Amino acid sequence: MAAKPADALHLLATVRDPEKRQQLALSVTEMCVAQPLAPSAEPIAGDLLVTLSTKSDLDTKVAMAKKLANCDWAPHSAVRHFAFDQIEISAIIIEKSDLLTQKDMIELAETGSIEHRRHLAMRANLCLPVTDRLAEPGEPIVLRALANNDTAEISEDTLEVCLHVAREHPKLREALARRHDLSTDYATQLCIMLPENWREELYRRFGLDKAKVETLAVEAALGATPEDVDKNAAREVQDAKEAGKLSGRFAMESLKAGKEAVFDHAIAALCDIKASQWRVALAMNGVRAAAMACQAAQLDRTAYPIIHKTLQRSGRIHQALEGDAMAAAANVFRMYGPEKAAKVLRQMGTRA
Q1: For 199, what's the count of Cα atoms within 13 Å in the CB-facing half-sphere?
Q2: Going along the chain, which residue ranges are E strands?
Q3: Nearest CA among 89, 62, 75, 81 for reference residue 34
Q4: Complete DSSP assignment for 129-174
Q5: What is the Cα–Cα distance from 338 to 323, expressed in whole angstroms?
Q6: What is the mean pLDDT of the chain?
Q7: What 3-state class would DSSP assign to 63?
Q8: Of 267, 271, 278, the residue nearest 352 (C-alpha)
Q9: 298-335 residue pLDDT tens
Q10: Would you say 292 and 345 are in contact if contact means Cβ atoms under 8 Å apart?
């Protein structure tokens, strides 16, 4: 008996007039959400809604999705269909519908677009199987949404993915730092990658050992450059010095060319400090150290934004050049001459 009403309903769905088709789609949706459907009617209604939606314009589908998303007994097949539709429609279902199953969400995480994953990552009360699937591609925008979702369960494996990607994404680091479910070890590793003002907050909130964090930051800074690369860089800078070519401009061009080890040794030579001291100073307070280096190497202050942004992209400075960071750099240029800046930089790198 179910086949005949199903055939009749599908016949209605073939109406060609756009206005009538829209009215039909919304009317049938209203019927489906008005009261719970009989078990035998639910799959028929779901099939009809899917058929109607494939012949509807965007505005109509959005209106249908909004009605279904707020209904506890909406046909699951229709809800699922809309969840996999274009993001303007899918986002409505993802955010509000309680009818999406764990299986639906895992499939959406695996086969949907990055925007589907981002919206899913913002959904309340996500369980571990879903968040693990969402994290697998390592997409910064999705991981940031997950990190900002304090109702989502996040496994240690997913946190490790986040930590790896966060090395090149400051906003993800900050989102992770705002979570309250981090282990002490994880918070310590994260702390190394955060600006100084964020570190103080994590010391307090997670009871971290400040000395341990600073020691790890120094070890990371000193161990980041392979020995052979470091030796070649030191030799290149020495050759430039002997040829009378070592200057702030030489250091800048090396950095812009991606030769960070050469930049480190050039800055060290120009500031009359060891390369290890420069690296430690940068790890301890990136903004201030970079500004001091500019002054000590007698680089024009207009060079500072380039140095700051390049070192930030490589994860060696953790603050964007705005607000407190910009004020701190400006303060160095205002208060320190070349000799005093070199002395302060040397003191900053005393742990080397």
Answers
A1: 20
A2: none
A3: 75
A4: HHHHHHHTT--HHHHHHHHH-TTS---HHHHHHHHHHHTT-HHHHH
A5: 25
A6: 90
A7: helix
A8: 278
A9: 998 899 999 999 998 888 888 888 888 899 999 999 99
A10: yes
Listed residue (110, 149, 143) closest to 129, CA to CA: 110
Name the residue with tokens 């909130």. Answer: 205
**For residue 325, what pLDDT is reported?**
86
Provide φ and ψ at 284, rounded to 5°: -80, -40
* Cα 314 to the center of its chain, rounded Å: 15
User: How far is residue 56's CA from residue 51's CA, in Å, rounded to a whole number?
Assistant: 9
Q: Which two tokens stand for residue 254?
A: 């090396």
Of the candidates 226, 296, 289, the one whose C-alpha atom is nearest the C-alpha of residue 260 is 226
Q: How far apart are CA 322 and CA 325, in angstroms?
A: 6
User: CA 178 to CA 171: how far, in whole Å?
Assistant: 11
**Residues 155, 312, 258, CA angle at the centre, nearest 5°?**
115
Q: How many residues make up the chain in this entry?
A: 352
Note the Cα 279 to chain centre separation in Å. Answer: 26
pTM of the predicted structure, to 2 decimals = 0.76
Q: Give every CB contact of residue 153 below 8 A, 6+ residues apart in sequence.
A: 126, 127, 128, 131
Nearest-angstrom CA–CA distance, 36 and 72:
8
Two tokens, residue 323: 């607000």
